[in-house]
Specification:
Elements (H helix, E strand, L loop, with lengths): L1 H9 L6 H41 L13 H6 L3 H32 L5 H9 L6 H11 L8 H14 L8 E2 L5 E3 L5 E3 L8 E7 L26 E7 L23 E5 L5 E6 L5 E4 L8 E4 L19 H26 L3 H9 L4 H12 L1 H16 L3 H6 L5 H4 L2 H9 L6 H30 L1
Parallel strand pairs: 4-5
Antiparallel strand pairs: 1-4, 2-3, 3-9, 5-8, 6-7, 6-9
Helix pairs in contact: 2-15, 4-8, 4-11, 5-8, 9-10, 11-15, 14-15
């Protein structure tokens, strides 16, 4: 009996249910920490440490040896280039997400009504597979000022020339010293006033023989054809004899007339009383002129330079042009996300509205958009975060001379730090500013996501 009691007193008491549950939770936490530790290590090395290092570095000078406090932040807001980057970033944040969300919503609604919806979505989403670098190169070529290279300017020049035409003689000029003078507006006129019954020869140079229109014929000297008492006649010709020879200022038999050249008769008070265009041999004639004297004028429109299109990458349009490239890439993303939300809408509400007599615009405005408001908000905020960090497109598309006009905070941070500025202190301050601008949008998106999960 005594030995049994001694054995019972010596054995440890068995763990209760509460203790076993506590040990189980402890083991679960330890296992979770072991599984999460590699990810936490990477997060700390790739995110937390760079952020903390950048914050600390922003308080030192360019060399990193002298503590300057808030000096970099003060300099940042004094620098005109940084202020321009802040302004451009604000334009991006307001314009790009708004346009993308609107385009995505409209396309998502319209795609539901087309037969080949899947193919259409695939086509719009394909630019997402193109890297920003490749997209930047594509649009840099598309926006090229030279119409023979830039597809947009080639289209603009084609439309312009179809409606307004173009000059056939942009390089032509009058030969000096033969009775023709140039005017400040680019036109040419006779040095002396011409009475009716006079013939005038306009000798032009500066035109390559190969650039003469194909329907041009050999010119005949107007001085050999006597003008009527009430008319003035003449010829506009290329004062150049192929193969050499000929006399300057006189029409030689091998010289070509210049067709479709506009000629005007101008009175002493500057009024244009008659106008015509030259024939295939360059000849022209004004008849029915009253007595007096006239100045014969070749208007500047004859020598206008060909239309070269739009300066897409000039200081004025470079930012809208880059935003256009960004829209091309991200419209499919917005459309797919909004389309997913649209597919989850309760169809009974839409059908009930149709049965009550609502048209499609009323359904879209009063039912579809309000029900999609949470999805539209998430898409908009996600795009706001994305455009604040845009770098590749701006750096690749904007040419060097207008880089400062197109710069945003991300490109300005790189230029200040590594693109020639070599001031990592100021660059770190710009990075901290960019982080502070992104954090509110990220917090809003996370909270929105958590509320939707609940």
């Amino acid at each position: 009996m005594t030995s049994t009691l001694v054995k019972e007193a010596a054995s440890p008491p068995s763990a209760g249910p509460v203790e076993r549950a506590r040990r189980s939770r402890r083991r679960a936490r330890l296992g979770a920490v072991l599984f999460v530790f590699p990810a936490l290590l990477l997060l700390g090395a790739l995110v937390v440490y760079p952020v903390l290092f950048s914050v600390g570095r922003s308080f030192f000078d360019a060399s990193g040896t002298r503590f300057v406090g808030a000096g970099n932040y003060t300099e940042m807001f004094r620098d005109p280039a940084t202020l321009k980057a802040v302004r451009n970033t604000a334009i991006w944040v307001v314009v790009a997400p708004t346009l993308l969300t609107g385009l995505g919503l409209v396309l998502a609604v319209l795609v539901e009504k087309v037969r080949w919806a899947t193919a259409f979505k695939l086509l719009l989403f394909m630019p997402m597979a193109v890297s920003f670098l490749a997209a930047g190169i594509i649009f840099r070529l598309a926006y090229d000022q030279d119409p023979s290279k830039g597809v947009l300017n080639a289209a603009a020049v084609s439309v312009h020339d179809a409606f307004k035409g173009t000059s056939a003689y942009p390089t032509a000029r009058a030969r000096d010293g033969h009775g023709i003078t140039s005017s400040p507006d680019g036109s040419y006129r006779t040095s002396e006033r011409i009475p009716p019954g006079t013939s005038v020869d306009f000798g032009m140079v500066g035109i390559a023989p190969g650039d003469v229109p194909g329907d041009a014929r050999l010119a005949y000297p107007a001085t050999g054809r006597k003008a009527a008492p009430d008319e003035v006649n003449g010829v506009v010709y290329l004062d150049f004899t192929p193969g050499g020879g000929g006399v300057q200022g006189k029409v030689d038999r091998k010289e070509s007339g210049l067709p479709k050249m506009r000629v005007e008769a101008v009175t002493a008070d500057g009024r244009t009383v008659a106008s015509t265009t030259t024939a295939a041999d360059g000849s022209f004639r004004f008849s029915g002129l009253t007595s007096g004297t006239y100045t014969l004028k070749l208007p500047a429109s004859n020598f206008a330079q060909p239309y070269q299109g739009v300066s897409w990458l000039g200081p004025t349009l470079v930012t809208p042009a880059i935003i256009g490239a960004y829209l091309w890439i991200w419209t499919g993303f917005a459309m797919v996300l909004i389309g997913a939300g649209l597919a989850a809408l309760p169809r009974d509400a839409l059908e009930a509205a149709r049965m009550d007599g609502a048209n499609e615009w009323q359904i879209f405005r009063r039912i579809t958009v309000p029900l999609l408001a949470p999805v539209l908000t998430v898409v908009f905020v996600t795009l706001v975060i994305n455009v604040m960090k845009v770098f590749d497109l701006v750096y690749v598309i904007a040419p060097g001379p207008v880089q400062e006009d197109a710069t945003v905070l991300a490109t300005q941070m790189w230029l200040v730090s590594f693109g020639g500025g070599n001031n990592q202190g100021l660059g770190s301050a710009l990075g901290v500013l960019l982080l502070l601008l992104v954090i509110p949008a990220m917090v809003f998106n996370v909270r929105r996501f958590r509320r939707s999960q609940r």
